[in-house]
TrEMBL record:
Entries under SUPFAM superfamilies matching the protein: NAD(P)-binding Rossmann-fold domains
InterPro entries in UniProt: Epimerase_deHydtase, Lipid_A_modif_metabolic_enz, NAD(P)-bd_dom_sf
NAD-dependent epimerase/dehydratase domain ranges (all copies): 3-236
Family matches, as Pfam families: Epimerase
Region (Disordered): 342-364
Organism: Kribbella sancticallisti
Name the UniProt record assigns to this protein: NAD(P)-dependent oxidoreductase
Length: 364
């Protein structure tokens, strides 16, 4: 298939694009380039040099000839969504719909939307399936819920949107993120030797490795249309729905010499949800998600070691999306709607942290 991946130059895209190519698909990318230069281990570019492109400006002519669009492009996590609510809506909701409408007008038949389990929000103690009510507690979660609803209205005989509600991702990528829990705690343990949680770590969080996310996207891409048409799938493994404190303890065990401590009482994080992943496995019996969190922590620790990850890297804008965005805003390289003010390559992010007050718990 001929596939366009928006947001291909982000954390998941850097793994998904080579995965789809290895499976024989022809893959192009479209990306605003917010994180150019934010690379672990040299970051080979999977697509090659090309101009940055804002998905909010895309028209049907650009999507002509594609069989499928995979929409990863977004302001990609909860704290980022708080930066400016309007901007999050502009990128995550309006931008997604713009690409979907252009795709439909161009005759693209499939649209795979990178949704998130964050849309379940404060879902309570029962594991939530795809039909559960949504209680998003952040602008990010709201935009994912609203985008799914609006995309569903575009579904017809010639256009099949599918909503892949990914659990919180982990794993090594050349476009590493350290603002997601497993990657973050592993980096803290390795660079400081101590994980000091600023809460009791009680919230529940489902996790999934980015290679397994890629596997799920690949399966949906090739599945019969009637199975995926206007369907939502939670993407993750039931054995990896864990409490944040379990993750910290697992990391502490996997990183030699590190210690873990917790503060009394709950943190500021309202997100708390257990997710039911049965539909994914029942619909696609041949799809096997393979990674365990423990293996992921070991993979990350090895990648950090090879890269020589330091506390300075950890505290810089390189691997934390919110810091990089704040840096671009401060330098005037993007405006408050995160539209680029220049097509020149952005300078490397190696300057000191601009939001040093971010705490571990805020970054989950
Ligand atoms: N990483 C996770 O834990 C996770 C979990 C659930 C869902 N998701 C979703 O998966 C997708 C990818 O996540 P990620 O972790 O790779 O994020 P990321 O921040 O690493 O990458 C997002 C990419 O989108 C690009 N982008 C942003 N605005 C754009 C625009 N207007 N036009 C074109 N490109 C734009 C950025 O430049 C970046 O390369 C996102 O939609 C995210 O919400 C991620």
């Amino acid at each position: 298939m001929k596939v366009l991946v928006t947001g291909d130059r982000g954390y998941i895209g850097a793994v998904l694009v080579p995965f789809l190519r290895a499976a024989g698909h022809q893959v192009d990318g479209l990306d605003l380039g917010l994180y150019e230069g934010c690379d672990l281990l040299g970051g080979p570019d999977p697509i090659g040099d090309r101009a940055p492109r804002d998905m909010r400006d895309v028209g049907p002519a650009e999507l002509d000839g594609y069989d499928a669009v995979v929409c990863l492009a977004a302001l990609s996590n909860d704290p980022l969504g708080h930066l400016n609510r309007d901007t999050t809506y502009s990128v995550n909701l309006d931008g997604t719909l713009r690409v979907a409408e252009a795709a439909k007008a161009a005759g693209v038949e499939r649209f795979l939307f990178a949704s998130s389990c964050s849309l379940y929000g404060a879902a309570g103690s029962e594991a939530v399936g795809e039909d559960a009510d949504m209680y998003p507690v952040t602008p990010y979660g709201e935009t994912k819920a609203l985008a799914e609803k609006e995309l569903s209205k575009l579904a017809d005989d010639n256009f099949s949107p599918t909503y892949l509600r990914n659990a919180t991702a982990y794993g090594a990528s050349t476009r590493l993120r350290l603002d997601i829990v497993v990657n973050n705690l592993t980096a803290i343990a390795m660079t400081t030797g101590q994980i000091r949680m600023e809460s009791d770590g009680s919230p529940w969080r489902p996790l999934v490795h980015i290679e397994d996310i890629s596997r799920a996207f690949h399966t949906v891409l090739e599945a019969p249309r009637e199975v995926i048409h206007d369907e939502a799938f939670n993407v993750g493994r039931s054995e990896d729905v864990v409490q944040v404190r379990d993750i910290a303890e697992m990391v502490g065990e996997a990183v030699p010499g590190s210690t873990v401590s917790f503060a009394e009482g709950a943190g500021p994080d309202l997100r708390n949800y257990k997710v039911d992943f049965a539909k994914l496995g029942d619909t696609f019996p041949d799809l096997k998600l393979r990674w365990t969190v423990r293996a992921g922590v070991e993979e990350l620790a090895a990648a950090y070691r090879r890269h020589g990850l330091t506390l300075d890297d950890f505290n810089s804008a390189q691997f934390v999306r919110l810091r990089r965005i704040n840096q671009l805003l401060k330098l005037g390289l993007v405006d408050d709607q995160l539209r680029r003010t220049t097509d020149e390559q952005f300078p490397a992010p190696g300057s000191p942290a601009l939001t040093a007050s971010d705490t571990v718990e805020e970054m989950h």
